[in-house]
Amino acid sequence: MTEDQLKDLLRERAELFKAPENYSHDLLRALHLRQRTEILKQPLWRIAWERLTTFLGEHSLSTPTYIAALATITIVGLISIVTLGSTSKPLSAELIAKNREIESQKAAQKKAPSDPQKGNLETLPVKFEKP
Questions:
Q1: What is the CA radius of gyration of the chain?
Q2: pLDDT single digits (tens) 112-129
Q3: CB-CB neighbours of 28 under 10 Å
């Protein structure tokens, strides 16, 4: 059989067995629905674990590389904690005294009622009983 005869045979076969107009779209939709129903039968933790292992499996890093990366992250974290902890200065006595003075002024303003006839609403008892 020559190449031209094969082409003619394939062309005739394609004309005889034409697929319906929306065949490929319907097939794709049906496959998608079937895959979705199969995936939803599994518990969520199994799906998440499968996706995590697939994601990590795509990378070609060896175990020692992962260990080195984890050690590096740990060391950088410890160094940052130590340096940030040592650079923070304790409050001086003057700042502490100013803060206490401001807090006492705020407390005095809260205790002193703005309208002496109404009194301080925060000190009035509240009743939640129905009449």
A1: 38
A2: 555 555 555 556 666 677
A3: 10
